[in-house]
Amino acid sequence: MSNKNTLAYAQQLDNEDPLKAFRNRFHIPKLKGKDVIYFTGNSLGLQPKSTKTYINEELDDWATLGVEGHFHSQKRPWFHYHKFSKEALAKIVGALPSEVVSMNSLTSNLHLMMVSFYRPTKTRHKILIESGAFPSDQYAVESQIKFHKLPYNEALVEISPRKGEHTLRTEDIISKIEEHKDSLALVMLSGVQYYSGQFFDIQKITEAGHQAGAFVGFDLAHAAGNVPLELHKHEVDFAAWCSYKYLNSGPGGVSGIFVHEKHGNNPDIPRFAGWWGHNEEERFKMEKGFKPMEGADGWQLSNVNVLSSAAHLAALEIYNEAGMEALREKSLKLTGYLESLLKELQDEGFLQMITPTEPNARGCQLSLLVTHNGKAIFEHLTQSGVVADWREPNVIRVAPVPLYNTFEDVFNFYDILKKVIF
Ligand SMILES: Cc1ncc(COP(=O)(O)O)c(C=O)c1O
Ligand SMILES: Nc1ccccc1C(=O)C[C@H](N)C(=O)O
Fold first, then answer.
1. CA-proximal residue: ligand 2, atom 15 (nearest)
2. How far does Cα 216 stand from its chain's mean position?
3. Domains, the chain, ranges and CATH?
4. Closest ligand to Cα 133
5. pLDDT tens digit string along 32-46?
6. What ipTM does this complex have?
7. How confident is the model at residue 247 (pLDDT cuts 50, 70, 90)?
């Protein structure tokens, strides 16, 4: 085969790609009539062409049936709507269908999960998070600690990379957990870190957290649909994610939660309740006394946001067709190809890839630390039709997504970047 630094090589990889037809299922944004190189599926995934149809079906049912749509919709009665995403989501996060439900938005769900799993006592009151966690998570944790009237600086334990490093070593996370083992109530980390792209070792961290007597939960915003997950098997206590990144379900799209079976069927776990979490057989009796549904369903508050969930179903259908295993296989190749091309620029000292090089420790995304003229380089990329994102103070994040990105996208990105730099 030809040299990998050529367009012909990339095109050959695309020809051999068993998932190549999926790109055509999405709307690709354009700049001056040409498809952009869309590398921001880690922020907002692209719109499936089928999304409009799914939403229009609900709009039609609403127009023709009004309130009757709750039970008599053509295809998907709204009363049951949260059930239609369960099978697909369970596969994506490695759960039983009863352990997952889509509802609300991510930060709201993190709060609901902390209501149940951050219940500080006199001796156990600390939360461990990664330093530099996504701001919304930091604010959520800060406000939970303050809600319990605990001293914030003492109750919050943050773990930082070693000096000169950009990612966390699993051994360091574990020793931090052990260090606080007598006072730790909750370990809450991301699955894939939004800034560095690091995929944490969920199994080992969960084991260590449990050994220390803490609950362990994950924010899977950047992990769901990006990396293989086994939440049930790894005995994670809870997780929450959003659907608008790798799950392509639209801006502000409905979030999802996972509650492990061992907690989901325990009606004594405290929670903030609403009628959609109440026993569905009796929901319309309008009686006093909350009786939770079994499993994650018992954490629902409100009736389903049907239009947002319709977009979710459209995207999950495509996801299911492609299959997580095949997507991961392509993702490893795609990101591996990007890494191999960028290595040349890294060796010349123009950028530093701070995402782990070990494929099991990352998803699609590579985070490029650009210390000289980073912002100007980023702006030039944007003008050249690359949609990436800039994260302060000096990182360009690029995420080739296996459902709709191509090896040609990767090559063209490298080509543009090289010309900008040299
Ligand atoms: C890790 C992480 N947590 C939380 C959020 C915020 O989610 P939301 O605005 O949907 O609550 C995001 C992205 O916006 C994120 O990447
Ligand atoms: N929802 C958004 C709305 C506006 C701008 C960005 C977002 C993101 O999702 C950012 C993403 N969480 C990130 O990892 O940076």
1. 43
2. 17
3. 3-47+324-421 (3.90.1150.10), 56-321 (3.40.640.10)
4. 1
5. 999 999 999 999 999
6. 0.96
7. very high
